[in-house]
Amino acid sequence: MLEYVLKERVALAKGYPREFCDQVVANSDIVDVIGQYVELKPGSGEYQGVCPFHADKNPSFGVNRVKGMYHCFGCQASGNVITFLKNYLKLDYSECIEYLAERNGMQLPTMVERSGNYISNRDIYDINNEAGKYFYKNLFTEEGKKAVAYINERRLKKETVMKCGLGFSLKAPDALYNFLKEKKYSNKLMVTSGLVVYDQEKGKYRDRFRNRLMFPIFDIQGRIIGFGGRVLDDSKPKYLNSPETPVFKKRTNMFGLNIAVKTREKYIISCEGYMDVISLHQAGFNSAVASLGTALTEEQVHEIKKHVDKIYLSYDSDTAGVAATKKAIEKCKKEGLSTYIIDMKPYKDPDEFIKNLGVKEYENRIEKALSAFDFLREDYKDGFNLSNPDEKANYVNGLIRKIVELDDPINRGTYIQSLAANTGIKESVIEKKVNEIGQNYQNKEVAEISQEISRQDREKVRMKKSGTEEAQRIILSIVAEFPELYPRLKEYIQEADYEEGAIRNLASFMYEILSKGERLTSSLILNHFEDAVDSDQYAEILAYTVPYEEGDMEDEAKYKAKKYAEFAQSVTLVYEKKLKNRMDSAEQEKLVAMNEYMKFLRERKNILEELQKL
Ligand SMILES: [Zn+2]
């Protein structure tokens, strides 16, 4: 099992060597990393803050620098720096390693031999960053004045411009090219990053973005992955984006998502344009995002679902916007997002809306947003003359099919009610029809539910405690903190004595490391089990802390004494139980042997005769 876990982990880590990953984790200061996202105050022995993983009123969230772990007393969330990034930023393992390595200034070992020609993602982030600074500075040049005038016209504040990193690309065909050349960037990197294009006819390099207001596009980790550029006049195309590059993926990334996820808002507002996002952010709606020049994609919806369960669509109110909304609803429903539609009328888009009606009214529209079904119903109505009974029947039947299609068992009742109220047809009649058409869907649901029940049952069996499981957990968590206790531990309790499953896996791993005299910390242990299916359990075991009194942890000696005492108690308990078990099973064996002996005495004569025959 352990071997399996480790193999899986290495595979998932895109081949970054295990030693490297461990080093990255060891070099990362958990207080520093989490402190970027959660306000932490030094408390007794550890840093405390408001938990980002549940609706926390008190600071229940503790971060322990020495252990390299965090733990929430409210929702029991716990783990190391990687677990945090996985759950907070929804990064996968290798992305966490890349994120931390970059923060620590560690060079990533690359799979491809790093020759002079090889371009890494890091190189692209670097050149993009340089270009971003360059575009920003252009705002303050003579030529940049028209961009500033445009920014003022759009009523963007100085802070907004800085927060979004807006900039300006000059008119000259090779302004950026020359700037980057001077900074010693290679032509190949410039082209790979999409900032520069090679013009084959003229045999020259030229800038992709010219005479445009520039919007840097960030990934969730805050790195510039590409740019969008908007013209200042009526020339075409109105918007130009970076091409697909090794780091710029239009189908998955979104404009503004890096800021939206930091708000920890329970929803995302999806808009059409960059300007919509920027003016919504300026108005305080920081969870607004936009696609990168395409319609909302399945990949983007999937990405959104990692962070929230609810989405507001705030698209243009014109025909194209309504069509985009309908397509988006389909994708959002498929991913299981609660979907609401914000009515922008009488204005075209959120940007115009807020300028004219203000923040309060937009807030009001969010509150009054239509559910996906109500939106579809209103939209569907347009094609029918409802005073004609035949058409009305077609209309209702069409909507019933939509209810089934939405495949949303939780809200189905509400949809039926809403349809009944809107058409004057009895709920029971609509419901019967829905059930008829929805038979297939229901069968699917029943299958899913029975699967879920059997999963829960298996879980229960697995969780059955042996009586000393709690003590075993305590032992391992204390030894992870005080490895010097290991020699005493192994005298009394061996690997096989631990409960099967996560506890024994953890014990095996710790015993293996400790018997070699290698370095061990809770955070490193978790790093090894990061990709195990039951990885939560390891964090839970290691996060175990003795309920201590205020001020306890400030007195290190006192704290240690307390831990040692608890260790001794727990080891004694487990050892005692182990010996008793052995006596019990010896007892059992003795009983079995006695039974056999009695039987022998009874049948002795027969056996003797039987044996003589041979
Ligand atoms: Zn919590």
Q: What is the gist of this entry?
A:
55% of the residues lie in helices and 10% in strands. The protein contains 26 helices and 16 strands. The chain has a five-stranded antiparallel beta sheet with strand order 1-2-3-4-5. Strands 13-12-14-15-16 form a five-stranded mixed beta sheet.
Notes on the structure:
By secondary structure, this protein is α+β, with helices and mostly antiparallel strands. It folds into five domains: 2-104, Alpha-Beta Complex (DNA Primase, Chain A); 121-241, DNA primase DNAg catalytic core, N-terminal domain, CATH 3.90.980; 257-378, Dna Topoisomerase Vi A Subunit, Chain: A, domain 2, CATH 3.40.1360; 383-461, no CATH class; 469-587, Orthogonal Bundle (DNAb Helicase, Chain A). The chain contains 26 helices and 16 strands. The strands form four sheets. A five-stranded antiparallel beta sheet has the order 1-2-3-4-5. The protein has a five-stranded mixed beta sheet with strand order 13-12-14-15-16. Helix 17 (389-406) packs antiparallel against helix 18. It is globular, with a radius of gyration of 32 Å. 36% of the residues are buried. The model is unreliable at 1-13, 111-116 and 458-466 (pLDDT under 50). Residues 51, 53-54, 56, 60-61, 72, 74-75, 77 line the site of zinc ion.
The percent range for helix content is 55-70%
Give the C-level CATH assignment of the largest domain: Alpha Beta
Bulk shape = globular
Strand order in space, largest sheet: 1-2-3-4-5
Q: What ligand species are in this complex?
A: zinc ion
Largest sheet: 5 strands, antiparallel
How many strands appear in the DSSP assignment? Answer: 16
The share of residues in extended strands comes to 5-15%
What radius of gyration results from the CA coordinates?
A: 32 Å
Q: Identify low-pLDDT runs.
A: 1-13, 111-116, 458-466
Q: Which CATH architecture of the largest domain would you pick? A: 3-Layer(aba) Sandwich
Quote the CATH topology of the largest domain: Dna Topoisomerase Vi A Subunit, Chain: A, domain 2
The domain count comes to: 5
Number of helices: 26
Question: Quaternary status of these chains?
Answer: single chain
- Overall structural class, as computed from helix and strand content, comes to alpha+beta
Distance between the termini: 51 Å
